[in-house]
Amino acid sequence: MGPQVDPVASDIVVPKEADVVIVGGGIVGTTAALYLAERGLKPVLLEKGHIAGEQSSRNWGWVRQADRDPREFDLIREAMRLWREMGAHGVGDTGFRETGIFFAARRAREIDGYRNWVKAAAGHGISAEVIEGEAVKAVMKDDLSPPPAGLWCASDGRAEPQKAAPAIALAARAKGAVILTDCAARGLETAAGEIVSVVTERGTIRTKRVVLAAGAWSRRFLKDLGLTLPQLKMRSTVSRTAPVTGGPDAGIWDDVIGIRKRADGGLTVANGIANVAALTPDHFRFALDFLPALASDWKHLSLGFGERFFRDIDDWPTRPLDKVSPYEKTRVLDPKPDLRFLRRTMGELKRRFPPFREARIVQAWAGFIDVTPDVVPVISETESLAGLVVATGFSGHGFGIGPGAGWLVADLVTGATPFVDPRHFRLSRFSDGSKPKPASRL
Length: 442
Ligand SMILES: Cc1cc2nc3c(=O)[nH]c(=O)nc-3n(C[C@H](O)[C@H](O)[C@H](O)COP(=O)(O)OP(=O)(O)OC[C@H]3O[C@@H](n4cnc5c(N)ncnc54)[C@H](O)[C@@H]3O)c2cc1C
Known about the structure:
- This protein is of the alpha/beta class.
- It is 29% helix and 23% strand.
- Helix 3 (73-84) packs across helix 13 (398-414).
- The structure holds flavin-adenine dinucleotide.
């Protein structure tokens, strides 16, 4: 079972028409709903399960600029501003705090890489530094084997994934959005290259504009519209401990260790490098697109042969819209956690941090990360279907950038000048011969 998420009750009435329908109630769908409602539109958000039931509640809770792909610099800089300003948008407690994030570096090559990254980020208004020696020890408080150096971004931080998207959804509702949970979008009705309506399991909503923010389900949804999104799924495991004292307050990434302090006093703990590729026919279909991403992460990847589920959702034939859809059959993706990875991480944590020797895992869960070939999201209009904006493929770092994505979606839907250059995020980059490659980790 996934972590317990702050509940958001569903609105009751399904409107007959809407200015814009948003499919997906994660961090991206909820922020899009909030910023669209603030611009005077009346969005209807459809979530097949509960708000933040999938990736948006299952993640580490890192809100980071550090080690971002340069194509995301402007978007994450603005997302940080939006996290800071949540209160001014009527959002309750998201748990956001600027506590800093540290990426350890133990080899000269890594340290040089981070120095270059710091220079590149500075050009986009992102301040970070490579720290060494005593400065590292101060960040890695209580560590018996601190690394010699690392990338330190003091303005990075964390938020609480089980609180953030629900709080944002409630703020969106207060500004006029309709929030429907347990209400899957089965598909779109179109005519002459335009959207006519969204068919939900509880009726049809007439609209000309749709935002697809469906996380790991987006590939399937687009496939039914004849659109190809190269997207694979990686299973990733997370856990939380009972309350602890001492140790670093910052988020720490050091090889197998990925930790952050939680608002409940515990730690969120994950193996920093282990992901499982959920093997499906798509791995063979998209093998060439993903080769650079898989090759750069290969040694940390395990293959999951048991992921029959995705063979089913991605390869099922298109269903008539008056029949039960795959989205209703699986309300919440809830994969099994991989405890073998966590055991190694807990062993390392206890060996290195005396205050964590008694730390006890009280819950573990997993989530499916939606990965694109260049590990950069798609936030884009679609050329062949007017009115459809896709916001997906956040490749393991969409929680932090989520509010920026929501704002960019609102720009694209309303025809405003995009607040950051959206070219890197266009869907067509995978089909126009650009062959974009990854420049960062998941
Ligand atoms: C283990 C793990 C750790 C991570 N750690 C971090 C981190 O520390 N920092 C970070 O920035 N990012 C992290 N991420 C990534 C981050 O969680 C995601 O990128 C982000 O949450 C994606 O948000 P989303 O709204 O696009 O998708 P999701 O949160 O997956 O939401 C999509 C929603 O769409 C709904 N949906 C799908 N199809 C339909 C349909 N047809 N009708 C109605 N609803 C539908 C789903 O039920 C789901 O709730 C992590 C992810 C995982 C899994």
